[in-house]
Fold this sequence. Notes:
Elements: H1 11-23, H2 28-40, H3 48-56
Helix pairs in contact: 1-2
Amino acid sequence: xxxxxxxxxxxxxxxxxxxxxxxxxxxxxxxxxxxxxxxxxxxxxxxxxxxxxxxxxxxxxxxxxxxxxxxxxxxxxxxxxxx
Length: 83
C-alpha cells in the first residue's frame, strides 16, 4: 500500500471529513480513501433503455399514437381456490 500526504487542508473541510468518518465508523484515513475510491471508480455505462430514452426524449409523439379499446378488460382471474 502507498501513502499520501495532504497538506494545507482547510480546517472546515477536515472537520466535515471527520464527522463523516465518525458516522461511517471509519478512521479519517479510511474515510478519505473511500471517498477517493468512489470518486475515481470507473463510471458504469448507461443501459440501453436509458440511452434510448435520452435519444428520443425530445421527439414529438404523433397524434395517432393512441390506443383505443372497444371494451374494458375483464375481471382478473380468481386464484383463491388454487392449491
